[in-house]
Amino acid sequence: MGLLSLGTPLDWTDAKAFADFIRTNGVEQFLNIYYSLKDRKGEPLLWGDEVEYMVILLDNSTKTAKLSLRQSEILDNLNNVTDDIVNDSNSSIVSSQVPTFHPEFGRYMIESTPGVPYSAGLKELLTVEVNMRLRRNITKHHLPPNHIPITLTSFPTLGVNYPFLDPHYEPNGEASQSLFLPDELINPHVRFPTLAANIRKRRGAKVAINVPIFFDENTPRPFIDKTIPYDRDLFPGDKEAKEGAAKPDHIYMDAMGFGMGCSCLQLTFQACNVNEAFNVYDALAPVAPIMLALTAAAPIYRGYLSDVDARWNVISAAVDDRTKEERGEEPLKNDKYRIPKSRYDSIDSYLSTSPRNRPEYNDNPLPMNKEVHKALIEAGIELPLANHIAHLFIRDPIVIFNELLKQDNTKSSDHFENIQSTNWQTLRFKPPPPQSKIGWRVEFRSMEVQLTDFENAAFSVFIVLLTRAILSFDLNFYMPISKVDVNMQRSQKRDASRQEKFFFRKNLFPKRDRDIEKYRFDSPRMEPMKKSFDNFKEESNMNGKRTTSSESLASNYNINVEEEIDEMSMDEIINGKDTFPGLMGLVYAYLHSLNVDIETKCQIKKYLQFIKDRASGKYITFATWTRNFMRSHPDYKQDSVITSKMNYDFIIAADEIERGIRTEPSLLPPSYIGSDKLKEPSVMDLSQGVSSGAEPDKRPT
Ligand code: ADP
Ligand code: MG
Ligand code: MG
Ligand code: MG
Ligand code: MG
Ligand code: MG
């Protein structure tokens, strides 16, 4: 999360009264940005990652692993360290390479980003892992004793009925009113407890998260969770669990912290202009669930093995502030809209104005704020973008700071960001902040964070190259967005990466170049592939010119969009099948279309090979590994229960894998070098090109 505003947050009833004020001014701010910056062109490709860590305290005498609530102290330390490096003229680290550390929702969480975004060069891709390792190393070396940072998507014993936090607190906080999580777990900055409290107040009840339990041999059927304190009588909402919020056969959770307390890996790309940002956004939308399945790393919640492998539905339900009327459980009376999804969910519409973005693809219900839509259309905003913004603006602002109500709408985007940054979707279209040099950006938000920086770098490099391939080959990934949502659900199922099929577009190439499909772009056939792409580039005169006339023509034909897509396995989508090149084929084609030295190519291929192998099932996901680890633990009773000791052993094992002192051939290639063996990366490893001079974005999340 970005910089935090200081001030006095309005209580929910007051905030609600200002909702229209925020939206009206927010739209005005958006229009000011759009009109002053829509013609901004030629921005360089810049991009950056965000990696989130959980800080864990290990106690070897009691064999416990707990989340450590020392975020403020740790961040102060880390910021002092980075300041010292910047101010130390003898430091071997160039100041632009000094990473930055940010707070996150959980008081046990730390987020790190590169100090400045990476630039486009392929060589720079080789610095990503080094940069990530530097951040992890700085963190590791500046934690209190017995603390470790782990890039874990969900913490197995978060919310169990024995101590899982250090220091320990009873769950009796006003903000969450949770039966399981104390408010002390929340980042103490007033924005965060207010978010939690106002989501609960707006909804009119606590959030209700129900994850299906994994039925093992001895799991009781039906599964009724006896550890829930059904009879607590501290807050009015305490009775919700008993009255049906806690579903049988599910793991029940009742607080924002269960979702926002998960970690993830996010990537932000700057496009050269606004249209390119639309294209990247649209093309990455169908990729989001695929990458969620491929990075799945979260099979355990509140001490139980679940039947899902990924965090998405948990976090989605954890901030679901919709009322019963909005959810369709009661007739609309006080509220304006039926809203099919939580504010944390997959995107509902594509953005491009190209004829490629056919109306048939935008087949999700799209409730819109009519006044906002009208204002946008009257101001001349193109329909897809107006739809998108008006859809975001059906939400109320949740946290409003009294001191920030009055703003100069030509200079601030705070009211716009208030709505935008609390629509947590698979993709985020990020307009430039006013009065900055930053361009139009797209954020890719579905991936789960991986245990090692080798993996986090591999996934980042893969998505960066895929994005470049999409743009240079003018690829078409459109499919009905309702099918993307079907994939979102499939992607979270147990072992989805190996067991599920996903909808994907069959022909990814511009229409008149159909014959390019003939080639599968895997390595033994590199030559024909390279040639075909060279021809293709010349023919379609790419690099800039989009949407061929034949394609516009095609849009007049009545194409059955269902016939354009197929159901494919993860292996097929990534590695290709028959005439379908696979996302990896596209990435390789792009790589080979560039003039890159062999050494750089080899290094990049190390990452790509890993992604290929993960997709083919040669390497299992961390979710599968975790499930296997727990199910074969000597203390496990085949009853889906994860004990404190099992959690401790799991954390120790995970840490040892990351450090490279425990090898797991099912997870990582033999060439993996753990952080123990690879000491502090030297500056020589960081390319000099890192200093792109771009200013980092510093706005609220
Ligand atoms: P948020 O939490 O709002 O998504 P952060 O500031 O935490 O944003 O992270 C944004 C990421 O975007 C970082 O990796 C940063 O390096 C990167 N970034 C910053 N400026 C740009 C830019 N102009 N273009 C692309 N990426 C950028
Ligand atoms: Mg974050
Ligand atoms: Mg961030
Ligand atoms: Mg942020
Ligand atoms: Mg308390
Ligand atoms: Mg982000």
Walk me through this protein's architecture.
The chain is of the alpha+beta class. The protein is built from 24 helices and 17 strands. The radius of gyration is 24 Å and the shape is globular. The site of one magnesium ion has 6 residues, from loops.
Question: Strands, helices and their partners?
Answer:
Elements: H1 12-17, H2 19-37, E1 47-59, E2 64-68, H3 71-87, E3 100-103, E4 109-113, H4 122-140, E5 147-150, E6 165-166, H5 191-203, E7 209-212, H6 241-245, E8 250-253, H7 257-260, E9 265-270, H8 274-284, H9 287-294, E10 300-301, E11 304-305, H10 312-318, H11 324-327, E12 344-345, H12 370-378, H13 383-392, H14 414-420, E13 424-425, E14 427-430, E15 441-444, H15 453-472, H16 481-490, H17 496-499, E16 501-505, H18 526-540, H19 549-554, E17 565-569, H20 570-575, H21 582-592, H22 598-616, H23 622-631, H24 644-659
Parallel strand pairs: 2-6, 12-13
Antiparallel strand pairs: 1-2, 1-4, 1-5, 1-9, 3-4, 7-8, 9-15, 10-11, 14-15, 16-17
Helix pairs in contact: 2-14, 4-15, 9-16, 12-13, 15-21, 15-22
Bound molecules: adenosine-5'-diphosphate and magnesium ion (MG) (5 copies).
